[in-house]
Amino acid sequence: MAAFHPLAASRVRISPLLPAAAMGAGAAAASASYAHHRRRFCAIVATAAASPAVATEFDFRAYMGEQAAAVNRALDASIPADEPPAALHEAMRYALLAGGKRVRPALCLAACAVVGGREAWAMPAAAAVEMVHTMSLVHDDLPCMDDDDLRRGKPTCHVVYGEPIAVLTGDALLSLSFHHMAKVDSYPPDIDADKHPARVVRAIGELARCIGSEGLVAGQVVDLEMTGSTETVPLDRLEYIHLHKTAALLEASVVIGAILGGGSDEQIERLRKYARSIGLLFQVVDDILDVTKSSEELGKTAGKDLASDKTTYPKLLGLEKSREFAEKLLSDAREQLSGFDQEKAAPLLHLANYIAYRQN
To answer: Coiled coil: which residue ranges (predicted)?
Structure first.
């Protein structure tokens, strides 16, 4: 196989986030670091599970329920139910409205609010990132990619509608995402008529970059190259895959929300770093859940990565050191939020905690 060269122009790529112990430091130092971080991680988990103060200060469950309901209404209104081509629209609606936690839209709306914008200004973008996310799932599940037949607890799009329609469903959702963001009538009347068009253009450019050959698609390509390979995948390449394949769209969700909310460049960059940390955290936790949970608990096929001989963090680091790395990423994400109003930042803080402690 040819030598690996990360995309030089990519702004998504960042320096390795793994702690020195995981990268091969001395055995004694690694053991001491591991023991310390594991105790700290267990304490954090116990505190998060037991503390009633979190619920009284900020009702995260209610917040996510309200955001998901609002996003679902926007998604439902975005695709006609009966207009031709009926088979395509039916498949689009099936994939898009099949459920899901709507984490990416919630991040987009919360980022808009934390910089002082109204969530309604970012709702078209929140719907758009969910369309892009759904497109990536539909394509990722295809037989030529990860070949899966279960998604969000339901048969995957190609199982129900056939491969050709599933491919076109993903294509149509991607196109719709940009159309939805660009339409003037997608936005409420109270936006700044002078500044908003430029913000929309900037946000569309950010989304396009994070899902193309500098982002999600780049990560998918390298992931495919490594699947089943006899070559030992180094940690920096695994990090590259997940910073692009998974973290890039989470980054886009946060950054475009901040742009549309009128955030300063400094605020946007702090939120970008926050998003990269939780994006990689999302994948580390996903890898852990894949080997610790059942298909019924996950709503998708459990053990799929192991069966397809994919390189994952538990495979490369072991389960406990993967959990240690998750703790570091969560700490990094929290640090980036320290400069914001803590009341406004509460949704982003709780979303980071949710990603760290989720069970599916």
So the answer is: 316-343
